[in-house]
Amino acid sequence: MSEALANLLNETRQFPPPAELAAAANVTADAYGEAEADRLAFWERQAGRLSWAKQWDQVLDWSNPPFAKWFVGGQLNVAYNCLDRHVEAGRGDKVAIHWEGEPGDTRTITYAELHELTCQAANALTDLGVVAGDRVAIYLPMVPEAAVAMLACARIGATHSVVFGGFSAESLTNRIQDASAKVVITADGGYRRGKPSALKPTVDEAVANCPSVEHVLVVRRTGEEVAWSAKDHWWHETVEVASTAHTAEAFDAEHPLFILYTSGTTARPKGILHTSGGYLTQAAYTAHAVFDLKPESDVYWCTADIGWVTGHSYIVYGPLANGVTQVMYEGTPDTPHKGRFWEIVDKYQVTILYTAPTLIRTMMKWGEDIPAGFDLSSLRLLGSVGEPINPEAWMWYRQHVGRGELPIVDTWWQTETGSMMISPLPGVTAAKPGSAMTPLPGVVADVVDDQGQSVPNGGGGYLVLREPWPSMLRTIWGDDNRFIETYWSRFGAGASGNAEDPWIYFAGDGAKKDDDGHIWLLGRVDDVMLVSGHNISTTEVESALVSHPSVAEAAVVGATDPTTGQAIVAFAIPRGTTETGGEAGEQLIAELRNHVAKTLGPIAKPRQIMLVPELPKTRSGKIMRRLLRDVAENRSLGDVTTLQDSSVMELIASGMGGGKSDED
Ligand code: 6R9
Predict the structure, then answer these.
(1) Is 542 in the pocket of ligand 1 (CB under 6 A)?
(2) Fewer CB atoms inside 10 A, N or C side of the chain?
(3) What is the structure's pLDDT at 644?
């Protein structure tokens, strides 16, 4: 049988945790053994970190796979766990959110204030007729009201569906319709790139086609003129005048908490459904374990948008359940200057920073003198999420943000998994740059071949999860069949039809185990290239390119080729001041092709490399290789391998046409 995925990249650097962090770490190496000895007892102990109104009768009901129930019979209120219990414990004056608007305006919100705002919003939503089980769509910029709106829904048992503020009226319409949302919470707009960016007109357009929507709540942020209809209510005239008294009712552990739409490669977006008890248990535990959160002293900052799952689990639920102080930033990293992120770290004395590889590679492109201009000495831990982080980007992050000494946690997880699944533990793991290392305690991940057999160390294949986990998706909203089809039908019982076989979750990612058994993520399996009979991952070739000192970022795709089946075509963004014109560009391209051949072997040598100023990304920063594949295949590139301007990207942009709004 042929290899599932070639293993080309060999990385040997390894960085043990700083002694001081290890000595005081929230979670030690014992956690692995404890979880292995009794996985359900382990998760039961983590659930015990939350406040429950009623104790569960059973930790896991897996009698009807792949439909799981966690903490069966238990009852809790998610918002109570994120707010009330901290206030009741006397920590109401502690800052929950240091909010920084893009124009530089700020708000400081304590746990007591966040609690009051949430109670007001819960009362206002109730007055508008929202009851437990109803769906509420949230379409907001990165303002504190976004967190308040989510928590208010959780408080009254309404299911929120946050739609990223960059999505179009059509995408918003589809999502509102799919969930039959009763209320939409939005704003007049937000600030992006130094300008107000309107949201309300998009909502007006969507709501016109969404008969389920009875009310629209509008936060005033920019003060720009907005059209007004009978369904519209200003937040400040509704929420901010409501009573601050509200008693949180407990809901079943399996009560729906939120739907979050994630786009597959082609098909219509999937409404990923998460429920309450298991989700909060794992979001809270992983934030505690992987970020080593110390509520007394840490200032945590996750740069994600609240519209992505990262914002749900690691801005709202995980950090707030742990009672930590965090920073929330409205805008873009280069407004008004390219040092904005580092200025914020400096200003709020951020201790833990969680960001995306795309941001790190952008910072690499801008150059290391930008972070060097700020005091980053408050930082003690760095995190990464969203894509494989190339070893060189990892090294750059450690060197130029982490003073060459901070641990980096590369956290693999998905909208579907709800929380982190594979990641170093910062006080335990000697991390390797580019590897997510090992499954977290209580998580059973593996890499398998086409037949679902575990691959040996050194082998590559498909990433799977062998056992259910508390924050797993429960289904695709309204489409159980698609849930089974997409995630459970590739391997195990769902593939064989044999009830004796275990149910195995297929994540859709390629991965490999290195010689020590550590896991390396290799990108989506849809992106794998088949070159002369070898399955080559885009990630490894991209990492080889980024390991060249002149490259900040790279995207690689397989294009149809008459001799090799597919050939590797690469798009590379040069670093800082690299000379890319004329002969210098040609020379660099030749050098890069040889560099890849030398690093990974001749099989991985790109047929073509184009130097480009930008790459097409999804709204959450993932590279859109599908678009690049179109460019690589449909255009006769001839000898013109150097692109000095953005013509390739303009071509891509024009190809995107009216479909600009969605990531798929
Ligand atoms: C949290 C989030 C999920 C997909 C996932 C994988 C990629 C995320 C990663 C990573 C390598 C990491 N991904 N984290 N790949 N290393 N640390 O991003 O959720 O938006 O649903 O995307 O992102 O391909 O399958 P989501």
Answers:
(1) no
(2) N
(3) 41
Q: How far apart are CA 530 and CA 328, in angstroms?
A: 42
Contact 519, 463 (CB under 8 A): yes
Alpha carbon distance 335, 289 (integer Å): 33
Whether 309 is in the pocket of ligand 1, judged by its Cβ within 6 Å, is: yes
Q: Answer yes or no: is pLDDT of 365 > 50.
A: yes
Global pTM?
Answer: 0.94
Closest among 157, 152, 175 to 165, alpha carbons compared: 175
624: its two tokens: 């859109």
Q: Which amino acid is at 553?
A: E
Domain spans in the chain, listed from the N-terminal domain onward:
1-29+529-664
CATH of domain 1-29+529-664: 3.30.300.30
Whose CA is closest to atom 14 on ligand 1?
Answer: 386
Q: In this predicted structure, what is the pLDDT of residue 604?
A: 96
Q: Determine the pLDDT at residue 633.
A: 85
Mutate to test the pocket of ligand 1, among 302, 390, 412 (most ligand atoms within 8 A of CB): 412
Q: Give CA angle at 116 (317, 220), nearest 5°.
A: 85
509 marked ligand binding residue: yes
CA 415–ligand 1 middle distance (angstroms): 8
Residues forming beta bridges with residue 384, ordered by sequence position: 355, 410
Report whether 333 belongs to an annotated binding site: no
Query: How are strands ordered across the β-sheet holding 232-234?
Result: 232-234, 215-219, 183-187, 135-139, 159-162, 256-262, 270-275, 475-476
Q: What's the pLDDT tens digit per position in 616-663?
A: 888 788 998 988 888 888 754 443 344 444 455 565 444 433 332 344
The SS3 assignment for 95 reads strand
Q: Using alpha carbons, list the distances in angstroms from residue 656 to 8, 248, 664.
A: 33, 46, 10
Contacts of 48 (CB under 8 A, 6+ apart): none
- Read off the DSSP letter of residue 294: -
